[in-house]
Amino acid sequence: MTSERFPESFYQDHDTLTLAQLLLGCELVHETDEGVTAGIIVETEGYIVGDPACHAYRRQTTRNAAMFGPAGTLYVYQIYNHYNCINVVTAPEGVGEAVLIRALEPTEGLALMGLRRNEAFKTGFARYRNNTIDPTTADGQRNLANGPGKLVIALGIDRKRDNASSLVTGNVYIRGPVLHDFDMVTTTRIGLTQGVDLPYRYYVKGNRFVSKK
Fold it and tell me: I need a surface site. Which of 121, 137, 160, 199 has the fewest CB within 10 A?
């Protein structure tokens, strides 16, 4: 593997849960006119066929259609009628499986990430509107992208523009790995009401950017 973006074969040659683990230590990148932002993937969750927590569990819908695209597609969906999350589509076309990116360790464009997060506070939920992030401090950096909704804002990913785009040819892509020689924790997923006992969550042990230990 190199520092270049992963080719289509990377997403095609591994099953979903394997990819959820292989993505740890790789770098998620978004190139925009404002600048480049990026972060090391330090936490993921897998969602597969037969999993009641998977968005594709029942059938294909307008909302989850991108999940049924080819491996290497970006699936962006909204939660709580406000925040967005991103998933890497990982199964052959027509099969709804994906890996949720849960947290990043910021590596590039931290000032831009902070600007986007602070702008989002102004229009976000009322309880967050008085919060600000200083990306020059350790605490500020830790909070830039240590959650699935946070990282989407920090990287400037837009649901309407980027959903169903290609991670192979688009402005959002994955490269790496850039983090090596780490231990991985395997555990259950967060914030679910179904499939709560399935050990499909993975994170870099001891990394302070993980959303929740």
Answer: 160
